[in-house]
Amino acid sequence: MKHSDTDIIIAGGGLAGATLALALARVAPALRVTVVETFPLSSDALPDSYQPSYDARSTALAWGSRLIFEELGLWSRLSEHATPIQHIHVSDRGRFGATRLNAREYQQEALGYVVDNRWMGLCLMRELLDTQTQWQAPAEVVGMTPTEQGVQVSLKTGSETTTLSAQCLIVADGGRSGLRETLGFQASHHGYNQNALVANVSTSDSHEFTAFERFTDAGPMALLPHGSPAHAGYQSALIWTLDDKELEEVLGMTDRNKCERLQSRFGWRLGRFTHIGACSHYPLSLTTVEEPVRPGVALVGNAAHALHPVAGQGFNLALRGLMTLVEQFRLADEQGRSPGDFQILRRYHELHRPDRQQTVQFSDSLIRIFGHSLAPVAAARDAGLVGLDLLPGAKRLFARKAMGTGGRRADINGPGVSHTPGPIQSRSPGHD
């Protein structure tokens, strides 16, 4: 089983690839893992301390994802700069329907957390330095050939191309994966004719650790608490859905006019918008790969499924899938089987598929329902939001969904955390 150069090659050292590498080091340490990343990596580049930037992009982690990171031994460090979401407020602009969740009602310290992507990456790198994980960086996987022992992977470093043999290749290079297409995986794309504008904003009123999800006639938007984990501040992470025309208009505005346009869309629940930071944007679409596994190869994270950020489940869904895959690799190693064995990879796909299908369906249907302006549909939405707020059983189920647990504890040794939605996720496309 050990005749190859390495057991598992992970193409992509972003959040998904690095998390997978750490989970394998914790759960199946006998497996040899090599991560191939296009960006240079050096332990000297890791700072001794982290100073959050106002313009840092961030990710919303469900409570269930926190439990997974606890199992990986990462949460203690990660929590130093993880802003808790203690309340969630969901509303339909211009209508009376609303639902509110409070972590204390469910004996939890938080419903989720908002973490800077760079801080999460640094925490992962720090932990990985203490493992046997090997790195090829800067380098890029540009091709793969199946062999009797597994796969022969072509690596490009500058103008030089080399090969590395492995038993399994994991594609984790993000939603814009070029390797996915190179290997011939068929991806289905559904465009929403919308864009996500992502920025950090300041308001005159404190967020009080509240995440706001606001559905408007122009599309959903969200404000997530950002900044200090201990003191409720005045900075929030914004995800603003805009069509092409309005995006162009907003990008051309002064910061003051952007704040005024945002005020008119969101309202005054956080007082006046006083500042908006650097804006990034990307087109929104639903991308899925129905068959993300082949003998010796598997797609994970955004390379396998990229969702609309409305439900905040891009990385949370990916994390649950990674834990399912890790468990199958652990079992394969115990049984003396190759991690690239198609039966092993297919079993992972079968276990993760219900979670993925239901999460994708929820995210997509939410966009369709709240994007409908017909009066009967809008009235039904209002009734649904009010009903959630008034009926204890329905509200408890909604809270479980928001926390990404479905009433179960996250378990690293199985498919684990339930397929459940959380707050809108603030992040940029690319490596996940």
TrEMBL record:
- Top-rank taxon of the source lineage equals Bacteria
Q: Which UniProt keywords apply?
A: FAD, Flavoprotein, Monooxygenase, Oxidoreductase
Pathway as given in its UniProt record: Cofactor biosynthesis; ubiquinone biosynthesis
Cofactors (names): FAD
Keyword Flavoprotein in record? yes
**Keyword Transcription tagged:** no
Q: Which family does it belong to?
A: Belongs to the UbiH/COQ6 family.
What name does the UniProt record give this protein?
2-octaprenyl-6-methoxyphenyl hydroxylase
State which gene encodes it: ubiH
